[in-house]
Design brief:
CATH class: Alpha Beta
Order of helices and strands: HEEHHHEHEHEHEHEHEEHE
Radius of gyration: 17 Å
Strand order of the largest sheet: 5-4-1-6-7-9-8-10
Helix content: 25-40%
CATH architecture: 3-Layer(aba) Sandwich
Largest sheet: 8 strands, mixed
CATH topology: Rossmann fold
Number of helices: 10
Number of domains: 1
Strand content: 15-25%
Amino acid sequence: MLSYRHGYHAGNYADVLKHTMLLQAIKLLQKKNKPYVYIDTHAGAGGYSLKDEFAQKTGEYLEGIAKIWPQTDLPEPLNDYIAAVKAFNTESDDLDYYPGSPAFVDMTLREKDRMVLHELHGTDYPLLAQGFAGDRQIKVINGDGLAGLIAAVPPIERRGLILIDPSYEIKSDYLDVADTVIKAHKRFATGVYMIWYPVVDRARTEAMFDKLKASGIRRQLRIEQGISPDSDEKGMTAAGLWVINPPWQFDQLASDTLAVLDRTFNRGGGFTRVEWEVGE
């Protein structure tokens, strides 16, 4: 059941968008001096070698981070993202390693902030736990992240960013994510919820969003990049973030970012969307 390994996909075009916007959300949260908690429901291994068998087998990073890596004159969100990836590659100036979401956040963590990381996979969890061993600001949990999210909110800080990033290899994941976010929002209505999603089957993806839109939750923003038109053929044609309670100006930062990513990754017939699906 848990066959998915993010190492195959680390640094692909979907990661570029996801991690660029994750860093911007953190940056905007940190404009206030108050502490916050970062909760990751599917944290993965924490970091990935782009030279190992997983990344080399698919080569997805070559169509993602590797295309952005050498570019200059980038908007600030992508400059921040590239700087973080370079900071993770401490052994050389080459693109050898790619940080997972927890590693991106860890690079920005202030002394007053903390992280709660969930990972269920039997191979990835020990790697994640080892990577953050001894850090008292970071709690690593071997368990179901959706159930763990409900247990983790409301946080004592009363401020938080939650990343929900499952593999969606189980078809029920889509509606399970919607149900979990609705429950969590009832307990912690002011949190920033970032749901990463793939578009493999558009109808299944939109069913998740329809449930969220019908929930009564306000301020729901879609940020999406399609590298090719939707298709019934196997494979991910688009990916994005569905964000509840995005920080102020987050939508404009997303638009600036997607303008560059579209011309970099569009394979023909692609598109970008930054749309308020539910307003104030």
